[in-house]
Design brief:
Elements: E1 5-10, E2 15-20, E3 28-32, E4 37-44, E5 47-52, E6 63-68, H1 69-73, E7 78-83, H2 92-101, H3 105-120, H4 129-137, H5 152-161, H6 167-178
Antiparallel strand pairs: 1-2, 2-7, 3-4, 3-7, 4-5, 5-6
Length: 184
C-alpha cells in the first residue's frame, strides 16, 4: 500500500528517518552505503535527483543528475528523511570556547562550520514536496561537488530547507575535534 510507514528511526535533532513503501515527490531519500549514507531527492515516477557520478557515488563525472530509484538504491533500502518544522542551531559559544582552549585544525574547522551554519540558518524554510523537487531540478548539471562543503547530503538538505549542511561531515569534524592533540 503506497505511503504506509514500515518503521521509524530517529536521526539528529533536525530530522527523523522513516522507511516507506512509496516515497512522495520532494521526499529526501537516504540509503546506507556501509561507511556513509547517500542522499537524493525523489522526483516522482521512480526517479531520484542526486549528486553523484553517473556510474556510482564517486568518480570523475560527479554532477547533479536524475536516475532511477533502483539505480540510486543499488540494492539497498531507502529511508525517507522527515524534517522538523523548527531548526536546531549548534551551540556556537561552546564550539568557539573549545577552539580557544584547544586550537587544533579540527576545533577551528568545527567552530567555523558552526558559525557558517549560524549565519545561514536564518534562511531555513521547509519547502513543499513540489518546491523541493523543483529546487533539485534547478541544479541538474551542476558539477561543483566537494565531499566536505558540497556533497549529496548538502544538496538534498538544501533542496528541502534552503540550508546547505551535512550532518555526516559535522559528525566527523566533531569526532576529530574530540581527539586529544599529541604533545611532544
Amino acid at each position: 500500500m503506497p505511503g504506509v510507514d514500515i518503521k521509524s528511526s530517529i536521526g539528529d535533532g533536525n530530522m527523523a528517518h522513516q522507511e516507506k513503501l512509496c516515497p512522495n515527490p520532494g521526499d529526501i531519500l537516504r540509503v546506507s552505503r556501509g561507511l556513509y549514507y547517500h542522499y537524493g531527492v525523489y522526483a516522482g515516477e521512480n526517479r531520484v535527483i542526486h549528486y553523484a557520478s553517473k556510474t556510482g557515488d564517486f568518480g570523475d563525472d560527479i554532477c547533479v543528475h536524475e536516475t532511477t530509484l533502483n539505480s540510486f538504491c543499488r540494492g539497498g533500502r531507502y529511508m525517507v528523511c522527515i524534517f522538523s518544522s523548527t531548526y536546531r542551531k549548534p551551540d556556537l559559544g561552546t564550539k568557539v570556547l573549545d577552539m580557544i582552549e584547544h586550537p587544533t585544525l579540527f576545533t577551528i574547522m568545527d567552530s567555523l562550520s558552526a558559525l557558517a551554519l549560524e549565519l545561514s540558518s536564518s534562511g531555513f524554510h521547509l519547502y513543499s514536496g513540489k518546491e523541493t523537487a523543483e529546487r533539485a531540478r534547478s541544479r541538474i548539471g551542476e558539477d561543483k561537488y566537494n565531499i566536505i562543503f558540497n556533497n549529496c547530503e548538502h544538496f538534498a538538505v538544501w533542496c528541502k530547507t534552503g540550508i546547505s549542511e551535512s550532518a555526516q561531515v559535522s559528525s566527523v569534524v566533531s569526532l576529530l575535534a574530540a581527539i586529544p592533540a599529541k604533545t611532544t
